[in-house]
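User: I'm putting together notes for a lab meeting next week and I want to include a structural view of one of the chains we've been expressing. I don't have a solved structure, so I'd like a prediction I can at least talk through. The sequence is below, exactly as it appears in our construct file.
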Amino acid sequence: MHIHRSEKILSWTVLTVLVLTVLIPLSWAVFTSLKSETSVIAYPPTFLPTDPSLSAYKAVFRNQTFASDLFNSVFYALAAVALAVLLSAPAGYAASRFEFRGKRAVMLLILSTSMVPAVALLVPTYYLLDKLGLLNNPMVIIVLQAARLVPQTVWFMQNFVDAVPRELDEATQVDGASHWQTFTKIILPLVRPGIAASAVIGVITTWNDYITVAAFAPEVAYRTLQVALVNQVFDSIGITWSYVMAFAVVCSIPIVAIFMLAQRWFISGLTAGAVKG
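Assistant: Thanks for the context. Below is the predicted structure for the 277-residue chain, given as structure tokens.
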């Protein structure tokens, strides 16, 4: 009983430390965004704003390119995730249900492609796109971001399909269903939580992607909120920290909202592939 209580106390202590580690910087960012610039640079610094103001947020929404930056972020994220899931779901089903020579080697090769740092491919990809005249092309950005998501998504989908009993496949095929019909009518509805989990992870990854858009779509018309946020730091006029923090908070809100809305599916999806049926 004493050991169980000690483990419980230790668990709560660790969780409390982790939560505070996350909440303190977030709280500092939010409170900084509510301060005037004079209060931000005052010494000694204060944690809470003495005279809270939404002026920094008003400045963010009044930014001339904010609407287009937001649209590009949403468009790239949703399109890249949709493309990645569209390609990965059938591949994951095939990897789970079909046996072929070199299957494990192929799966490891797919996974290994996700281990190559994006920076290592930056220069050759840039020169290739430049020669083909494909810089500042939204479709290219979507394909590149989807390509980064596909390897891990294929492995996720394989694990999710593995959790579905093979007897269901056999029963439908006895009734004359093809593999494609089995996949679309039986497997896909059962692995929807897994698809949702993969989609949430993909949206977060794509939403936070800076280097792809900054390198391959340098024109302002094609940039995202993340690129615009970083550009604030390199502004020649100087950094307005209340504005930068307000911008960062606004950029984070859509991801937090998506996670909160899909939390139930996200958690069930992550645990769906842990135990095979």
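A couple of points you could mention at the meeting. The chain has one domain: 60-272. The CA atoms of residues 60 and 66 lie 7 Å apart.

User: Perfect, that's what I needed.
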